[in-house]
Amino acid sequence: MLLPSARSVARRLQTLSPRIDELVAAQLWIEVRTFPWQRLGKVAANVLASLRVAVMLDCGVASQLQRSDRTWSRTRSLDPASYCWAAVAAPPTVTSAEEELASLLAWACEANVITTEDRSLLLCLVATADSASSVTRRSRSGLMGDRVSAAVGEAFGVSSVTVRRRARRTMTALSEACAEEEWFAA
């Protein structure tokens, strides 16, 4: 029943790839098999909308990449054999995510971007989210999840809504400050 509409999607997206028919067929199978039948209606419309978005993501359409993952959309891959690597004097020192986060938060506190309470809240959120078993993309990799924010709120004596609001405000302040000044060069 979805075949005529899938052909239409393939025809509209044919400029994206010479193998568009294969991409659409494969993604149609995935969308049909993973469709949440119990909670969504309008099956054909939802499957086709998801199909179009997923095929555009597979083909690397910039607008879809920005919507789904802003960080990945800003990333440029570089061939390991590229001449650009010759310009690098020494390989960068590898730091763990924990060290990088500690460095960022220390810089932010010194520059009065965030308070020490904000830093404590974020560190507690990270530790709690790291120990949590379920992580969803919608909750900012688990930091804004209901269980995580409730546990942190209980530890800090505030509601989970307050935890999420303070964390969101703190992360926005960090993002804006990092965009203005390169904290890692300090």
Instruction: Find the structural class using helix and strand composition.
Output: mainly alpha
Radius of gyration: 22 Å
Tell the overall outline: flat
Tally of DSSP β-strands: 0
Q: Largest sheet, if any?
A: none
Average pLDDT score: 80
Amount of helix: 55-70%
Tell me what the structure shows.
With 186 residues, this protein is mostly helical. It folds into two domains: 71 residues, no CATH class; 89 residues, no CATH class. Helices cover 61% and strands 0% of the residues. Helix 1 crosses helix 2, helix 7 crosses helix 8 and helix 7 crosses helix 9. The longest helix has 21 residues. The radius of gyration is 22 Å and the shape is flat. The model has no long low-confidence stretch (mean pLDDT 80).
Key structural traits:
186 residues, mainly alpha, 9 helices, 61% helix, 0% strand
Summarize the entry for a quick read.
The chain has 186 residues and is mostly helical.
Layout of SSEs?
Blueprint: H1 3-12, H2 20-34, H3 43-58, H4 62-68, H5 70-73, H6 97-110, H7 116-131, H8 146-156, H9 160-180
Helix pairs in contact: 1-2, 2-3, 7-8, 7-9, 8-9
